[in-house]
Design brief:
Elements lengths: L11 E4 L3 H13 L3 E4 L11 E4 L2 E4 L4 E3 L4 H8 L13 E5 L2 E2 L2 H21 L10 H14 L5 H22 L9 H5 L7 E3 L4 H11 L6 E2 L4 E5 L5 E5 L4 E4 L1 E4 L3 H11 E2 L4 H9 L1 E2 L3 E6 L11 E5 L17 E4 L6 E6 L3 H6 L3 H16 L10 E4 L13 E2 L2 H6 L3 H6 L2 E3 L2 E6 L12 H18 L4
Parallel strand pairs: 1-2, 1-13, 2-9, 6-17, 10-14, 13-23
Antiparallel strand pairs: 3-4, 5-8, 6-7, 10-11, 11-12, 15-21, 16-19, 16-20, 17-18, 18-19, 22-23
Helix pairs in contact: 1-14, 4-5
Bound molecules: flavin-adenine dinucleotide.
Length: 464
C-alpha cells in the first residue's frame, strides 16, 4: 500500500505487527480509531512464526498456550486447536557419557527433581532467597541431597550430569541462563493454571490468521522499519529507514525487549528517562531456538518423548562449543520424521554462525557419537530453523526477571510499561510481552499488553 494515501486521517501509530500490535489494532478497529501499523519485516506475527510442513505447520516461535482464562485460549477452543494426544512425560531417555542412565539412578534422581521443583516454586516467594538464581538454589539443594546418598564415583558423575540437564530444562523453559534466572520469576509469573496447552498441527497458524483477519491489510505498512520516534513537538514524528516520515497523536511501541536494548538510544528523541532506560537494560532477554531435524524415517522408538544428552563424548576441544548446548531432542507429536533440538545457552549464537550443511554435520556427529551405544542413528536429510538471536527485529527469544532486575528492588516491568505523557496525553505507549506483569514471555501477555495500551489511548480520547 501507499502510506501517503491514508495518512491524513491517522492518529495512532503502532510499531510492530506481532501479537501485541495486532491486538491493539483490532481494538482500534472496534472503536473506530484511526491507526497505522508499521512492520519492519515482510510478515506479520513477529515471534509467532508458523511454517508449512506436510499437513500442518511447525512453529519456529511460540507453540504452547499458557493459561485458560484468556483470549488466546478462547481462540484455541473456538477453532478446535487442542492436540488430541499429549507428550508422554514418562518416555524419557537420558544418556550420560554415551551410556544410558539406568533405573536405579532414575529413581534416585526423580525423588530429587520432584521435591526440588516444589521447593523452588516456594522459594520464589521467600524473602530470604527470592533474589537468588535458580542455578544457585538448585546447587544448594543438590549438594545437600548428595551428602545423604551413598553412591560410587561413576554414579555421582551421572547425578551431576542429571543436575546439569535439570538446570538446562529451566533454561529452555524460561529462556534464561539458569545462573541469571532469578527465583522471583516463579512468584511473579502467573497464568492461573499449572499446565500449558499443546496444540494440533494447525495450532498457531490459525491463531495468527484469526488475529490478522481483524486488521485490514491496507492498515499495515510492511517492510516499514521505524528508526526514530521524535516526540519533541505536538505531534509524534515517526521516521522510517527509507527517510519517509509521518505524524501521529500517539504511538504504541511493541518492539521486542531485545530490540529496545540495542536501539533505545537512537530510537527515541528525546532520550527515554533514566529510570525506563535502566529497567530496559536490567530486565533479562533470552535467546532460545528450535532446530527441526528432518529424517527419512524415525530412528527413535515409538513412545519416546525426550532424549537428553549430557557429559558428551566426542570433540571436547573448545569450551562454549555448540555441542555442549545440544542436550534436548524431542520427537514431534504429529510430524513423525521430525526430531526437534531445543537449544539454549550459547547454542543459538554458535548455530547462527553455521550454514545449514555445517550445522547438519555437527548434529549428525553429535547424535551418532553420543547415542551409538543406545540407537542406530540415521542421517539428517534437512533442517528447518529460524535464528531469533540474529533476527534484526527480535534479537533474542523472550524476557525474564534477571538477577540485576531482582536485586534493584524496582518494578522493572512497570517502568518499561509506563507511558510517556505530555499534558496527560499518552504520547508514547509501550506494549509487548515484556510489559505484562504476570504473563511476560508469552503470546497471552503480548496480546493483553496491546489491548491495554489501545485502551489507554482510547480512554484518554474519551472514546470508550
Ligand atoms: C523460540 C520461541 C519459542 C516460544 N514459545 C512460546 C510458547 O510456546 N508460548 C508462548 O506463549 N510464547 C512463546 N514464545 C514467546 C512469544 O512468541 C512472544 O512472547 C510473543 O510472540 C511476543 O509478541 P510481541 O507482540 O510482544 O512481540 P513480537 O512478536 O516480537 O512483535 C514485535 C513486532 O515488531 C516488529 N518490529 C520490531 N522493531 C521494529 C521497528 N523498528 N520498526 C517496525 N517494526 C518493528 C517486529 O518485526 C515484530 O513483528 C516463544 C518465543 C520464541 C522465540
Amino acid at each position: 500500500m501507499n502510506l501517503n494515501d491514508s495518512i491524513q486521517n491517522i492518529t495512532v501509530a503502532i510499531i510492530g505487527a506481532g501479537f501485541a500490535g495486532l491486538r491493539a489494532a483490532q481494538r482500534f478497529e472496534q472503536l473506530g480509531i484511526n491507526y497505522m501499523i508499521f512492520e519492519g519485516s515482510d510478515r506479520v506475527g513477529g515471534r509467532v512464526f508458523p511454517f508449512s510442513y506436510q499437513s500442518g505447520y511447525l512453529q519456529y516461535g511460540a507453540e504452547y498456550v499458557n493459561g485458560e482464562d484468556n483470549e488466546i485460549y478462547e481462540i484455541v477452543k473456538k477453532n478446535n486447536l487442542l492436540s488430541a494426544t499429549e507428550i508422554d512425560e514418562e518416555g524419557y531417555e537420558t544418556v550420560v557419557y554415551g551410556q544410558e542412565v539406568n533405573n536405579k539412578m532414575y529413581k534416585i534422581w526423580d525423588k530429587f527433581e520432584s521435591s526440588t521443583n516444589e521447593k523452588l516454586e516456594r522459594d520464589g516467594a521467600r524473602k530470604e532467597v527470592k533474589n537468588q538464581s535458580v542455578s544457585e538454589r538448585i546447587d544448594f539443594y543438590f549438594s545437600d541431597f548428595m551428602k545423604a546418598q551413598k553412591l560410587s564415583q561413576s554414579e555421582q558423575t551421572v547425578m551431576q550430569n542429571m543436575n546439569k540437564l535439570f538446570k538446562n530444562q529451566y533454561q529452555l523453559e524460561w529462556s534464561a541462563p539458569s545462573t541469571d534466572l532469578c527465583l522471583r520469576n516463579f512468584d511473579t509469573w502467573d497464568s492461573g493454571v499449572d499446565s500449558e496447552a499443546t496444540l494440533n498441527e494447525i495450532g498457531f497458524k490459525s491463531i495468527l490468521d484469526e488475529l490478522a483477519s481483524k486488521v485490514p491489510k491496507t492498515k499495515i505498512g510492511m517492510s516499514s522499519k521505524v528508526v526514530n520516534v521524535d516526540y519533541t513537538g505536538t505531534k509524534v514524528k515517526i521516521m522510517l529507514s527509507n527517510g519517509q516520515y509521518f505524524l501521529f497523536d500517539s504511538v504504541i511501541i511493541t518492539a521486542s525487549l531485545g530490540y529496545l536494548k540495542k536501539h533505545k538510544t537512537t530510537l527515541f528523541t528525546p532520550a527515554l528517562s533514566v529510570s525506563k532506560s535502566a529497567a530496559i537494560d536490567r530486565f533479562g532477554f533470552g535467546n532460545n531456538m528450535k532446530i527441526f531435524l528432518e529424517y527419512n524415517d524415525p530412528w527413535w522408538p515409538n513412545g519416546m518423548s525426550t532424549i537428553q544428552i549430557s557429559g558428551r563424548v566426542g570433540n571436547t576441544e573448545t569450551s562454549n562449543s555448540l555441542e555442549d548446548d545440544l542436550m534436548v531432542f524431542q520427537p514431534f507429536l504429529w510430524a513423525r520424521k521430525i526430531l526437534v533440538a531445543w537449544v539454549a545457552g550459547n547454542g543459538p549464537l554458535e548455530a547462527s554462525k553455521l550454514t545449514d550443511s555445517q550445522l547438519m554435520t555437527v548434529l549428525d556427529n553429535h547424535l551418532d557419537t553420543n547415542l551409538k551405544n543406545v540407537y542406530i542413528v540415521s542421517k539428517i536429510q534437512r533442517i528447518h530453523r529460524h535464528s531469533w538471536i540474529s533476527d534484526e527485529f527480535a534479537l533474542g527469544s523472550y524476557s525474564y526477571i534477571s538477577n540485576k532486575s531482582c536485586q534493584s528492588n524496582t518494578d522493572d516491568i512497570k517502568l518499561m510499561r509506563d507511558p510517556i505523557l505530555t499534558n496527560r496525553r499518552p504520547v508514547i505507549c509501550f506494549a509487548g510481552e515484556h510489559t505484562d506483569s504476570e504473563m511476560f514471555q508469552t503470546v497471552v501477555g503480548a496480546a493483553r499488553s496491546g489491548l491495554r495500551e489501545a485502551d489507554r489511548i482510547a480512554n484518554y480520547y474519551s472514546l470508550l
